[in-house]
Amino acid sequence: MKPVPYWLDTATPFSGAELGPVEGSVDVAVIGGGLTGLSAARALARGGASVAVLEKGKVVGEASGRNGGHVNNGTAHNFAALVESLGLDRARAIYHAFDEAVDTMERIASEEGIACDFRRSGKIKLAAKPEHYEKIARGFELLQREADPEARLVPREALRQEVGSNAFFGGILHPRSAQMHVGRFGAGLAEAATRRGAHIFEDAPVTTMRREAGGHRIVTARGTLRAKQVLLATGASKLGPMYFRRRLVPLGSYVIVTEPLGPDRIAAIMPTQRTATTTRIIGNYFRTTPDGRLVWGGRARFALPSQASDAKSGRVLEAQLRETFPQLGPVRVDYCWGGTIDATQDRLPRAGEQDGIFYATGYSGHGVQMSVHMGEAMAAVMGGRPEANPFRDLQWHPVPGHFGPPWFMPFVGLYYRVMDRIS
Ligand SMILES: Cc1cc2nc3c(=O)[nH]c(=O)nc-3n(C[C@H](O)[C@H](O)[C@H](O)COP(=O)(O)OP(=O)(O)OC[C@H]3O[C@@H](n4cnc5c(N)ncnc54)[C@H](O)[C@@H]3O)c2cc1C
C-alpha cells in the first residue's frame, strides 16, 4: 500500500516552477499553491498583473491534491437549516455559488485543455438512518422550489439502482455535481497559470510578511519579494495573523483507494458511478475512478494527519468499506493518505480583506470546486470588484477559546459520536 495520494501518484507533476531566487517586486504575491492560489494566479496574470505564487512545498501537495475528488454542488448544510440561519435570499445565493463553482471548474478545464476526466456524474447523499431520510424528505420541497429544481428524492425501494448496499434508507440526488482527477487538474492549472505569465516558486515557504509603503515585504526561505497586493491562500496552514488562527479549525480527513475492482464488481456496488456522501456527522464520501477503483474517504478519527495517524485511519476506513459493501469480499487497498481541512464553525467559506491582506479560505471539506471559483473571484475583488465575492456579507466570529491548535477536537469528536448514535 502506498502512503501517498492516488491523484498525485497517477498525474504528471507540474514542471514549470521557477528555479531562481525569490526577489524583486510584483503586483500580486499569492501565498499558497493549492487550487485557490493557482486559480487566482491564472486569473490575475490573464488580467495583466505580474504575479508570483509562493508555495511552501509542491503545488497541490496539500488538501488540493489529497481530497476525495468530488466536485459537488449544494452546501454542506441541509438547505432548510441554511434558510433558517441566513434567510431565504442569502441561502439561495450561497447555494447557487456552489452551482457556479462546478461550472467554473468545467469552464477552466475546457478553456485550458486540461485532461482531468471531468464528468457530470451527479451526487447522491445517502441517509444512514430512516430518520435522516425523513428529514431530507421534509426539506425537499423547499430545496427544489427555491434552489435546486433538478434535485430528486430517491426512496429506499429505488436506492439499489444507485448503490449496492443495505446500509442506507434513501437518498437525494443532485445531478449537477461532478467528479474529476484532482492531480491532473491541479498540475494543468499550474501549467495554465505559468502559460498566462504567473511565476510559481515551489519549496519557498513564507516566513514573515510586513506592511510597508506601497505594499508588502514578504520573506521566504528562497529570498524576499515586494508586492503591491497579497492573497493569502494557505488553506489550513498556521501562517497568517492570529485573526485567521482563531477562526479556522484544522480537521483531519482520510482516504483509501482500492485495487481496480473490474467492471462487474463496480456495477454491483455503484452502478451509476456518482459521487456519494452519507448523512452521519462522522460520515463517508466515496466514488469510483475511470480505472475501476473505489475511492473511500471519511473523518475516521479525530487526529491530524501524520504517517502513523493515516495508517490507523486507513484501517478504520477499510472496516467501514467492508461493512457497507460486504459482497466485495477481501479487497486490496493500494493507497492510503490523510489531509487537513480548513473548517469554519458554520462550515461556510470566508473571503475578503483583513489588515490589508486578501484571503479566501474555510471551505470546510467542500472546497475542490469552491477554491477554484474563489481564486477567480478574489482576482476580481483585488481588481476593484468586491461584489464578485459571494461570501462578502458573512460575519466571521472567532471560535471561543481557540487560539491555534484545536485542543478541543477530542471532545468535539466524542460529542459527534454520541450525536451520530442518538440523532
Ligand atoms: C482528505 C480530504 C478530502 C477532501 N475531499 C474533498 C472533496 O471530495 N470535495 C471537495 O469539494 N473538497 C474536498 N476537500 C477539501 C478541498 O480539498 C479543499 O477545500 C481545497 O483543496 C482547499 O484548497 P486551498 O488551495 O485553499 O488549500 P490547500 O490545498 O491546502 O493549499 C494551501 C497551500 O498553501 C501552502 N502553504 C501553507 N503555508 C505556507 C507558507 N507559509 N508559505 C507558502 N505556502 C504555504 C500549502 O503548502 C498548500 O499547498 C477535502 C480535503 C481533504 C483534506
Descriptors:
423 residues, alpha/beta, FAD/NAD(P)-binding domain, eight-stranded mixed sheet, binds flavin-adenine dinucleotide, Glycine/D-amino acid oxidase-like deaminating enzyme, FAD-dep_OxRdtase, oxidoreductase activity
Compose a concise summary of this entry.
Helices cover 33% and strands 23% of the residues. It has 423 residues and is of the alpha/beta class.
Account of the 3D structure:
This protein is an alpha/beta fold and 423 residues long. The protein has one domain: FAD/NAD(P)-binding domain (3-Layer(bba) Sandwich). The protein is built from twelve helices and 18 strands. It has helices at 6-9, 35-46, 79-86, 88-111, 130-146, 156-159, 182-195, 242-245, 263-269, 307-324, 368-382, 409-422; strands at 25-31, 51-54, 70-71, 123-126, 152-155, 170-174, 178-179, 199-201, 206-212, 215-220, 223-232, 249-258, 275-278, 284-288, 294-298, 333-343, 350-354, 357-361. The strands form three sheets. Strands 1, 2, 8, 9, 10, 11, 17 and 18 form an eight-stranded mixed β-sheet that branches. Strand 10 and strand 11 (223-232) form a beta hairpin. Helix 2 runs parallel beside helix 7, helix 2 packs parallel to helix 11 (368-382) and helix 4 packs across helix 11 (368-382). The chain is globular, with a radius of gyration of 21 Å. The two termini are 36 Å apart. The protein binds flavin-adenine dinucleotide. Flavin-adenine dinucleotide binds next to helix 2, strand 12, strand 16 and helix 11.
